[in-house]
Structure formats: C-alpha cells, structure tokens
Write a structure and sequence with these properties.
HAD-like_sf; 3-stranded antiparallel β-sheet; 11 helices; HAD_sf; about 300 residues; 5_3-deoxyribonucleotidase-like; 5'-nucleotidase activity; single chain; globular; Tac7077
C-alpha cells in the first residue's frame, strides 16, 4: 500500500488524501480521512485512520513485525442515519443507529435528475410565464409535466416560451436548490457513485454545469443531457443514458421517465417533494414494483441505504 497516494478517490468518495510524516525508514503517523457524513447533534465530519507504523523495505508493518492491518475509528457522535467506517479489509462499513451494520462491497451507481429534484425549476418558469404572458397558474395546476397542456397552447409554442425563459434572469438566477439535497448527496457520496441525468437541452448546458458546480460542487462524476423538447439537436432517452452508466437507481420526479427506466430493470425513486408535485401522482408508475415514492431527501438516503450491496 503506497502511503503517498490517495487512499480513496476524493472526488467520487468525498475523502481526503492521507498524510504521513516520515523519519528515515521508520514512521509513525495519524491519518485522517475527511468524510462529510453529517450529524444530528453537531459536526462529526472526520473519520480517523490510526496506526503505529514501521517501514521495512517499503512494506508497512506493526512493531511486532506483522504486516499492518488497518483499522478505523471515529469520534463519538450520533449520525442521523448511519456512520461510515473503514474496516480492516479496507471495505466501507455502514453502522446504523440501532447497531446493525453492513459492508459495502460495491457502490450503488445512482443517476440524479436536476429539475424539481436538485432545483426548483417549475416555480421560476411559472413566474416568468405569469409576468411575460399574463398567464397565471399555481404549481398545483401542473397535473402533467407537459407545459402546453397547462398553458393551453401548441407544443411548439410551449417549447419557444421555455427557450425564452432560458435567456432571462428568472432562469439564470431564479432557480434555488431543493432543501436537503446538498447535505444528503454529500452523505450518499460515501457509498454511491453519483451522476446527473437530465432531460435539459444542450442549449443550456453551460449554465447548467455552472449551476451544479455552484450548488453541488464535486459531487457528481458525470453529467448527461437528454436534450428533450429542444428546438434542434438529437435527444436521448433517460433509460438509454442510465443503461450506459450502468445505473442501479434513478432519482426523478417525472412518472414517465420513472416507468421508462423501471421497465428496463432500473430501480427508481420517484421524487415528490413534500407531496407537492401534482404531476407525480400517476398510478401507472407508482404501481410498478421497481418504483418507490419519496417525499424528501432524507427518505432518499434511507431508501438507498437499504439497497446498498452487502
């Protein structure tokens, strides 16, 4: 084990690089692996990896001469849903409040939608439509995520209005993160590989990347655009993108995409924040055995923890 290399990938796992102090061929060190796992009673974001080391011919050994086995410990704290530890075999171990635990043999690959899952797109768009077109609607009226049916116009006209919205401050500075998303995603990064899979258009790719980096820095390994409802360019189904990622789970608010992915064997968490998304009430999607309804990011975390491979 080379101690001058990262213990685990900081970008994908939220861990920091190990640090070691050396004195010739012998060294003793205390290693800290920073993990943002969250706490219900205060900060507890540091997992410490501790051992006394001796180096003989580059091999870390204990003082009794045996090859070193690592162990991990953490300061006492109460974590909201789980604590993460590194066990002696260097696998991630999740310990729940009730004392039960499981080793993570394989990280879950999780695809995450943007609009209404990471950010409140619709409320910003709806305000723009009211101000620009004097077309007043409450979010409760959006029984389907096909805007032309709500605005009583053609699909082509609705697409044009949305692209006008993209050029305004309503879009550029008016979309705010969904409560709890950033904190939970930081927790999830310890046992999930996270990627964005959005239906957003290529026309707003640059701004979307900037927005994600501002509000969710370093949390996503890949970001994919479906280019749906675009004025030009080729679109890709979410199911195709998720399959190419090898995704185990999709987190999305759209029942159409939920069913599409569930039908090819991908688990879906249908995100209905605070039970306030009328377009999420489709019985056809929620009746599928691979679709599970969740109402906040805390529920997302608990559900994903239950699916972690042992």
């Amino acid at each position: 084990m080379a101690l001058n290399k990262p213990f685990l990938c900081p970008r994908s796992c939220g861990l920091s690089q190990m640090k070691v102090g050396k004195e010739g061929r012998r060294s003793e060190g205390r290693f800290f692996v920073a993990m943002d796992i969250g706490s219900a009673v205060g900060p507890c974001n540091e997992l410490s990896l501790i051992s006394s080391l001796e180096h003989h011919d580059g091999v870390p050994r204990r003082k009794d001469g045996k090859i070193l086995k690592w162990h991990a410990s953490a300061p006492f704290c109460q974590v909201r849903s789980s604590e993460a530890f590194l066990s002696e075999d260097l696998r991630l171990k999740l310990v729940n409040r009730d004392g039960s635990s499981k080793h993570v043999n394989q990280k879950l690959i999780v695809a995450v939608d943007v609009d209404e899952v990471l950010g409140s797109f619709l409320s910003a768009l709806n305000k723009f439509i009211a101000d620009r077109y004097s077309s007043n609607h409450s979010v409760a009226e959006y029984f389907v995520y096909e805007f032309f049916k709500i605005w009583k116009c053609s699909r082509a006209e609705a697409d044009i209005r949305v692209h006008e919205f993209f050029k305004t401050s309503y879009f550029k500075s008016g979309i705010f993160p969904i409560p709890g998303a950033r904190h939970t995603l930081r927790n999830l990064s310890t046992f999930c590989n996270l990627s964005v899979v959005t239906s957003r258009q290529n026309a707003i790719k640059d701004h979307t990347l900037e927005w994600i980096e501002e509000h969710y820095p370093g949390l996503f390994q890949e970001i994919h655009f479906g280019n749906h409802f675009a004025l030009d360019g080729v679109s890709r189904p979410k199911s195709e993108i998720c399959r190419s990622l090898g995704a185990h789970v999709l987190i999305d608010d759209n029942p159409k995409y939920a069913l599409e992915c569930a039908e090819i064997g991908i688990r879906v968490l249908l995100f209905d924040y605070d039970n306030s998304y009328p377009w999420c009430k489709s019985c056809s999607s929620t009746s599928h055995p691979l679709v599970t309804k969740v109402h906040n990011w805390q529920e997302v975390e608990l559900q994903l923890l239950s699916w972690v491979p042992r």
